[in-house]
Design brief:
The chain has 588 residues and is mostly helical. Among the domains are: 237 residues, Serine Threonine Protein Phosphatase 5, Tetratricopeptide repeat, CATH 1.25.40.390; 127 residues, no CATH class. The chain has 20 helices and 14 strands. Helix 10 runs antiparallel to helix 15. The relative contact order is 0.13. This is RagB/SusD family nutrient uptake outer membrane protein. Its main location: membrane.
Length: 588
């Protein structure tokens, strides 16, 4: 994705005059009226579009798991730790997306207003093609930022109505009315869908070169192969496409159909399932599930061989890769020169079934509390570093026991685990942090994985049609979960637990939610999932203390959330400034 490095460099060059685009408000007009901007100059509005990409909040892992029952942190300054410990307020909000998303939307609105005024290239026909493409990207990005705003700030106002956020669809300047009321959740969803449909109609399915003009979609009219590749070719992989817009629509529909939001809009579970299926069917449905998708982060040969902008089978949209060791530096155990920051909980460990597919609480599972990691779902040891397992480039044995003699031991030093576990998922074990011989390795962050879309389909299809229903599609929730568990190495004996769940929507719901918890762990989903499900937020975080090889479950950290915290707050300062903004119920 060298072209992304190039265009971001261009953005950095041309956007210095608009860095104060949002605050103070007077700057909103000055950027386009200043002497630095020549109307029709393509660099300036393109830099504005790139600013939208630059504000995507998915460019790194937030580890909001620390605010849930899945993890704690040994970093006392971790904002999600503070949030879980009762310090979440309307003016101290680690999940705030208000400023970032509205700044992005302001840029995108300006871009949409300028596109048709710009001569993108000397060839008029090609210039119109670029304008078409950039409009599609801007609409798709605007929809995505409204989705982020809803996820962080939508909620029930004091009057009981489910509200979204103000719908700002035009550039705001010195004469604009900033005192806007929140739109209904339904109107916000309609706007998101509208923007995504525009994006899909304007953009190609993917940015790929074509071999001949017969492959050009009819919507672009009569143009040549070279012109098409110039605008929509493989040089632009990594930017928003029609396929990505379709996936964002599935994500938004899942949120809207969920228990926390369903009563405030008309999106149904069937809508969410069908939206996900549209994307999955482009990959062949169930057969498109990547065989190595669960370990996407450690498929080292695949990652190292990635061409610029190319995606492995598991990934729909991702960031560019970078050479670094940041995740490992933060999360390797102390004996591997790491800070051991993210500590998976016993709660999460207990959520992994046995290899035969049964939960460890089921009498048929064969679980042995004295040997808790034997015969378990293979994902457990792939995602969580348990006592006695090996890690790092030399395969070092890690002792997390309370009576361990190294700094890896439970609560030994500040960088030690607080739960008896260290993070393994996302980390490349071929990274060396030894200061005498450190190295970096390729890493990237997914924006959207195909497994997420399979799980969206499974959850929505089960709710819409039951475990075995398919609606107008050719596969069921049961089919998806069976494929995911089989890929993981679970239920190789025929998976009798899954077979039993196939006869009951509630049992399948619990199984699907658990599979989502495991497959998407530490990728920024658990925090949002608990809230959209209106599930229990205050499950105590637990760990394990091992002495003389005998494990004992211990309490590690309380979760101090109030019931109204299923919805996040409107920023306190915004409510103070603008009388038309209603705060969500319970927040002050």
């Amino acid at each position: 994705m060298k072209k992304i490095v190039f265009v971001l460099a261009v953005w950095a060059m041309v956007s210095t005059g608009c860095k104060d685009l949002i605050e103070p408000a007077i700057e909103n007009n000055r950027t386009l009226d200043s002497a630095a901007y020549v109307p029709g100059d393509a660099r300036f509005p393109y830099g504005i579009l790139l600013n939208g990409y630059n504000r995507l909040p998915t460019n790194g892992f937030s580890f909001n798991d620390v605010a849930t029952d899945d993890a704690v942190s040994n970093d006392k300054n971790n904002n999600f730790l503070k949030m879980a410990n009762g310090q979440w307020t309307a003016n101290n909000n680690p999940i705030d997306q208000w400023t970032n998303s509205y700044a992005a939307i302001q840029y995108l609105n300006i871009m949409l207003g300028e596109i048709d005024k710009v001569k993108w290239t000397a060839d008029e026909k090609v210039s119109k093609l670029f304008a078409t493409r950039f409009k599609g990207e801007a609409y798709g990005l605007r929809a995505l930022f409204f989705f982020y705003l809803l996820r962080s700030h939508a909620g029930v106002a004091e009057g009981g109505q489910l509200l979204g956020v103000p719908l700002v669809l035009d550039p705001q300047g010195t004469t604009s009315n900033f005192n806007l009321p929140r739109a209904s959740f339904e109107d916000c969803m309609k706007q998101i869908y509208s923007d995504l449909e525009k994006a899909e109609s304007l953009l190609p399915l993917d940015f790929e070169d074509i071999a001949n003009a017969s492959q050009i979609p009819a919507k672009y009219g009569s143009i040549g192969r070279e012109d098409y590749n110039r605008v929509f070719g493989s040089a632009f992989r990594g930017f928003l496409t029609a396929r990505i817009a379709m996936a964002i629509k599935a994500k938004a529909a899942l949120l809207a159909a969920s228990p926390a939001y369903a009563s405030g809009n008309t999106t149904t579970w069937a809508n969410a399932a069908d939206n996900a299926a549209r994307v999955l069917n482009l990959k062949g449905g169930i057969s498109g599930l990547a065989s190595n998708g669960a370990t996407w982060y450690t498929n080292t040969a695949e990652i190292d061989a990635l061409a610029d902008g190319a995606n492995p089978p598991e990934i729909l949209w991702r960031t560019n890769w970078g050479l670094n060791r940041d995740l490992e530096q933060a999360n390797f155990p102390p004996t591997l020169f790491g800070s051991g920051r993210i500590n998976p909980t016993q709660n999460l460990v207990d959520a992994f079934p046995m290899a035969n597919g049964y939960p460890i609480t089921d009498a048929a599972s064969g679980y042995n509390a004295a040997k808790p990691y034997d015969n378990r779902d293979p994902r457990l040891k792939a995602f969580v570093l348990v006592n006695g397992a090996t890690a790092g480039p030399s395969g070092t044995a890690i002792n997390t026991a309370a009576d361990g003699t190294t700094n890896d031991a439970l609560n030994k030093v500040e960088s030690s685990t607080r739960t008896g576990y260290y993070l393994r998922k996302l980390l490349r074990q071929d990274v060396n942090l030894n200061p005498n011989s450190p190295n970096n390795q390729k890493h990237y962050t997914p924006h959207i994985r195909y497994t997420e879309l399979f799980l969206i389909y499974a959850e929505a299809a089960n709710e819409a049609w039951g475990p075995l229903g398919t609606g107008s599609n050719s596969y069921s929730a049961y089919d998806v979960i069976k494929a995911i568990r089989r890929r993981a190495g679970v239920g190789t004996n025929g998976d009798p637990y899954l077979e039993a769940a196939a006869g009951n929507k509630e049992s399948m719901r619990a199984l699907i939610r658990n599979e989502r918890r495991l497959e998407l762990s530490f990728e920024g989903f658990r925090f949002w999932d608990l809230r959209r499900w209106k599930a229990a937020l205050n499950e105590q975080a637990k760990g394990v203390s091992i002495r003389n090889n005998v494990p004992a479950v211990i309490a590690v950290e309380e979760r101090l959330f109030q019931p109204f915290m299923n919805y996040g707050p409107i920023p306190y300062g915004e409510v103070l400034k603008f009388s038309a903004l209603e705060q969500n119920s319970g927040w002050r």
